[in-house]
Each structure stands twice: as structure tokens, then as C-alpha cells.
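Design request, C-alpha cells follow.
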């Protein structure tokens, strides 16, 4: 299934005004379970900073910034925390820089970069990588660059599919991925930690996301609408009614998924420290 054309169409619709762009970010935060888990982990990281240090400059890398929704969230946490957001797509970099300029958000800058080559030694206090690593073949080169780019005691936060049905492969013949832009369907929870340790990280933690509640929410809020939009763009007209009916269930499932310790799941949250 081609996911990028849907993303481009949504981007064009919501990129017309800053109000629509912010509304788009809010909708992504509500619909995408990974956003619930990522924002929870960012709040934990930010909460560990002592009040006396809250006005100390922090430099954050949004590695694979996409539409910029996480850069928007991160840059809103403190005016003295700077977000360096990188992506490989020119169109998204240009759109994000234009939007952030319009809203006068001066503590974030979007730049084009290849993560297999990008390194800024001992520079970032936090590196965020959300649904990026499953798109990159040479993941260990990226992990080494992340390690080099973190300050001492800096943290890497990754959200990515797991090998327990990540990319929804269990619903397809011959293990075909639902999202066919992925170069891997998901990570083994131990394998990704081993790769991070080989890259130099001395401490790692990983937990499953998208357990049973999350899988229900994913199908209701993302999979079925995307399948219908791939069939006909006319479904855009019916989306508000669809979500009016289904989203209360998806919202509860998202909430529940963030509060359960899952024995398995189709997603992973991985943290590593230098």
C-alpha cells in the first residue's frame, strides 16, 4: 500500500494556512498512537530536568522530521530549547520552514540531511527518531551517528515497528508489509538494543507498544481510512462521519495502550543513553 501519496494529499490540504497546519498537528496527536507514546516519553525526559535548569539551553535533533509535528511539540516546551529538524524530502523541509516562520517559532530550523551521513559531534541533548529507522537499510551507520552526535548523558528516543507484526505484516500473504515504503517490517526488541550497544551506547531500554488495544485503535483510526482513501479520494468527504462514529473507541484504546505494560506488541519505544 502506498502511504506517501496519502500523506502528500493531506499535507496540501492542511498547509493552506497556519491554523489548518496546527489543526493537522492536533489531529495527528489524537489519531496516531505512536504520538501518544512519544509525547509521554518526552514529558518524562523533560520532567527529569531540574527546575533551576529549565532555562538552560537544550539542543534537540528531530531526526526524520516529516510534517514537523514533533518539532512543533518540542519547540513549544521551552523558548530556550532549540530543535534542529532534518529530513530527506525537500518539499517537507520547505513547507515546515515556511510554516514555522509564519508562526514566529524561532527556536526550530528544518534542514535536508541524510541520516546515514549526518553527524554533529557531542551536540544534542536529545535525539528523537519517530518511525524512521524502518525506512533506512544501513541502520547501524545511523545509530553510530546518533551516538557521536549526543552529548554525554544525552538520550536517544526511537519509535519504530516491532517484528511482532510491525507494518501490519500478519494480515498479508507472504508477510507483505501494509506500508510498502518500509525496508524492514520491524525490529526484534533485543536486536535493536544490541545494535545500539555496538554503536557505543552504554545503556538501553525498550518496551512494546501497540498491544491489543493499540492494534484495535490502529485499524480504526489509520488502517481502514487509508485503505478507503486509496480506493477513492471521495472518501475524504465521509471521513468526519467515519471518525465521529469510530474515534471514541480508538481514543479509549490509545489511552489504554499507553498505560499497559505489554508482553508483546507491533511497536517499540526504545531509549538509549551515551
Amino acid at each position: 500500500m502506498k502511504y506517501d501519496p496519502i500523506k502528500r494529499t493531506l499535507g496540501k490540504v492542511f498547509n493552506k494556512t497556519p491554523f489548518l497546519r496546527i489543526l493537522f498537528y492536533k489531529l495527528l496527536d489524537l489519531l496516531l498512537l505512536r504520538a501518544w507514546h512519544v509525547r509521554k516519553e518526552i514529558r518524562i525526559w523533560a520532567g527529569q530536568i531540574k527546575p533551576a535548569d529549565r532555562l538552560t539551553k537544550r539542543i534537540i535533533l528531530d531526526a526524520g522530521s516529516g510534517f514537523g509535528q514533533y518539532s512543533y511539540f518540542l519547540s513549544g516546551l521551552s523558548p530556550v530549547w532549540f530543535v534542529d529538524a532534518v529530513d530527506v524530502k525537500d518539499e517537507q523541509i520547505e513547507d515546515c520552514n515556511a510554516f514555522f516562520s509564519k508562526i514566529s517559532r524561532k527556536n526550530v530550523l528544518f534542514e535536508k540531511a541524510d541520516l546515514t551521513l549526518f553527524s554533529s559531534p557531542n551536540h544534542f541533548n536529545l535525539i528523537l527518531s519517530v518511525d524512521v529507522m524502518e525506512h533506512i537499510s544501513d541502520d547501524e551507520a545511523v545509530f553510530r551517528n546518533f551516538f557521536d552526535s549526543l552529548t554525554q548523558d544525552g538520550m536517544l528516543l526511537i519509535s519504530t515497528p516491532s517484528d511482532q507484526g510491525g507494518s501490519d505484516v500478519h494480515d498479508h500473504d507472504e508477510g507483505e508489509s501494509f506500508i510498502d515504503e518500509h525496508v524492514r517490517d520491524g525490529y526484534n526488541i533485543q536486536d535493536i538494543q544490541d545494535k545500539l550497544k555496538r554503536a557505543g551506547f552504554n545503556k538501553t531500554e525498550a518496551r512494546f507498544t501497540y498491544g491489543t488495544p493499540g492494534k484495535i485503535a490502529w485499524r480504526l483510526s489509520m488502517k481502514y481510512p487509508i485503505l478507503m482513501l486509496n480506493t477513492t479520494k471521495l472518501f475524504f468527504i465521509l471521513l468526519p462521519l467515519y471518525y465521529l462514529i469510530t474515534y471514541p473507541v480508538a481514543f479509549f484504546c490509545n489511552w489504554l495502550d499507553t498505560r499497559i505494560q505489554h508482553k508483546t506488541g507491533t511497536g517499540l519505544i526504545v531509549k538509549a543513553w551515551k
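Comment from the thread starter after seeing the answer: thanks! The chain has nine helices and seven strands.
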